[in-house]
Design brief:
Layout: E1 2-10, E2 16-24, E3 30-36, H1 41-47, E4 60-63, H2 71-79, E5 83-86, H3 96-108, H4 118-134, E6 158-164, E7 169-175
Parallel strand pairs: 1-4, 4-5
Antiparallel strand pairs: 1-2, 2-3, 6-7
Helix pairs in contact: 1-2
Length: 177
Amino acid sequence: MAAIDFFVVPTITLRLLYVLIVITHKRRKVIYFNITEAPTAEGTAQQVVNPFPYNTAPKYLLRDRDSIYGSVFVQRVEGMGIKEKLIAPRSPWQNPYVERLVGSIRRECLDRVIVFNERQLRHTLESYFKYYQKIRPHRSLSHDSPIPRPVESPECGKVIEMPQVGGLHHQYLRQAA
């Protein structure tokens, strides 16, 4: 199962950028994101193809009832063999994984960064998603990350810190002496 949603990011010049996110439910892995100034049903329909190449589409796609998912989007998803599961109107808690991710992105990243333009936002989100998927612990995954990481024993050396996401977060590793 996968989930899809948009969220809005204002820039310093008060332009609005729309970010599309697609995640899998099993490991809460972000499999695709894109940024646009003016989302359309046709553009969104094309974007839903990108995260699922070579018949890797999930059986179900969970989404809200936003008007951006027009008939073109619905036809494209049906053509890919995906069954859509729509949440009730004004019920974001029915799409918990993607809503939680959007909240994490805002709290842990975008609330601490001034966004100037789309290029900078893309770079910031790419850096955050790398951190989110490979380093950040998730309670629901037994404090592992969506991409599992090895456990380092104390015998591996002293602990060092490595800045991530432009210094907003850190990765702690053991370095051999």
